[in-house]
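Q: Sequence in, structure out?
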Amino acid sequence: MSDRLKELALPIDDWIFQQMNDALLFVDEEGELLRFNDKAGELIDGDLQSLVDLLDFHQLKKEETPKLVDLPPSGGPLYKVQCREVEKNSSLYAIFLQAVPMLDQTFEVKKKMSQRLTVPSEGMVIHEKGKIIDCDDTLAHMFGYEKEELMKQDAFTLTEEGEHEALHKLFLSYPEQPYVLKAIKKDGTPFYIEVLAHPYPQDDRVLRVAIVRDITERVHNEKKIEFMSYYDELTDLPNRYYFMDMVKEAIEEKDGLAVHFIDLDYFKQINDTLGYSFGDELLKACASRLKLHQDADTFIARMGGDEFLVLQRHVNHQTDAESLAQKLIEAFRKPVVIDGYELYTSVSIGISLYPEHGKTAGDLIKQADSAMYTVKEKHRNDYLCYNTSISEEFEQMLSIDSELRKALKGNQLELHYQPQKSIHTGKIVGLEALIRWNHPEKGRISPATFIPVAEKNGQIFEIGDWVIREACRQNKQWQEEGYPAVIVGVNLSALQFLQKDLVHRVKQILKETGLDPMYLELEITESMAMTNEEYIIQTLNELRNLGVHVSIDDFGTGYSSLKYLSRFPVSKLKIDKVFISENQEQNQAIVKSIIHMSHSLNMKVIAEGVETAEQWDFLKSEKCDEIQGYFYSKPLPAEELITVFENKPVH
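A: Exactly. Output:
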């Protein structure tokens, strides 16, 4: 020690100077070390002059607030350092180094790790092999404890038993990435945490400062996404992707199996009548009923819409599959009760067998679907096992589906018009627009074939708009060419009529084509009119306010009553041709009643399917207003209809 150091008088008692728990150094104005106590001598191997240089004495003496430093410079204990001039103009400076308590160091650790964190609200804990030494209030509250209570816990009591083995391994390593654990709160509530640990040397032991984040919401969202990938959210049943995987696994077992493709009968009518919320409740109720038949050999899933799938394992013979199908059909004989409604629904089931009908999951589902489609078209409330003739019919349906999408763009669709004639004047008073499909290779395809397909694949809306627009355009053109102004009638499907924006669509089309609304008539069936009374009446009133006529087609085949008809703002009833073509005494009585009832309600009556002079005479004698049928004219393309306009009345 230099003479200058020996002679330096300390501003504190020498004994106190040496007994201090914190390091204290004295330096001159140039930063040369003059005196230090024993605690300071323990720092960085006693080379205290290098410490003064490391602390950047000249910068340190300018700072008014304490400075935090690691000693040694990287990864060592954290110290709070201050520098003050002992007396003004004394050229003597004191450097004071105070060890920072462990918990106070955590914010510094967090700062070092900040680039790996995304939120500022993590809890922090210091532990040694899981035993908690210190923590902050955020972590304590995260687990539902007071801080003092948490001091008595360890990582193993705060996590589920299944995580303990992983924890032991983690305490023996230094994972660079955050790891996820399932933790337990004080009240027993499980939740998920993400932990990012940072080793912290302390004397002869290594502690860990861990940053802990509650990621329960994130994990639940991830699980929800996973659930949505394999399950149907509405019914909680597996979805078709999960079903495909299960069929693939069953095929690998080289055991006999069956796929049942199930469709709810009349679901669309129920959905359209009672609303989509009611339809959802019905789907959930049906799913619950199907779940009652789930066991070790059956796996049930929702295909989508009102379609379900059942995988049946260990099927040795076709009769095994048919037996299950019969049980499923029987299960739906009891009504489903929803919101006080007792609904009687049934199911149509198509069955395919492995390996007879397909060797892949996709083929088996496809063949079962085609068998179900056949049941649906012919019987309903029944089952059918796949055969090759079904495949040909189903392939034709799929072909029509594909070709129909090209028909509109390829101008393959056209309208024919069947004249409607006044019995009293003999003049044409209206035209019914009827769609035709002229396929470039297959020729004429019947509407009875392609309209059901369009309703199933949703193209009915595009086709329906096209029919209304084309009928209005053509009628306006005839009027501009000087032909008599008559009403053009267009049939609406149930799906079209139940569109929420139907009235707006019709209004737009009339505006585009320039046709006066009084020359457009929309035809709905009697059964459509009765499905959802209040909604139907609202739509009919809106159409009437628009100036468009509405008629009820196929009248007499449904279950209308005078009470309902009196509330409907319709202008015309069309008697179904079944009552005209069969000249039985009973049918004639029905026709008379319909005519009389219509007139009493200030509605006109038109009879369709009139083919003979006898039918004409009968209708004329009963004061029917109009007729339509081959007796006067078949449906004609627009260019041929001009000759009918020019012809003189026949009767």
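The longest strand covers residues 190-202.
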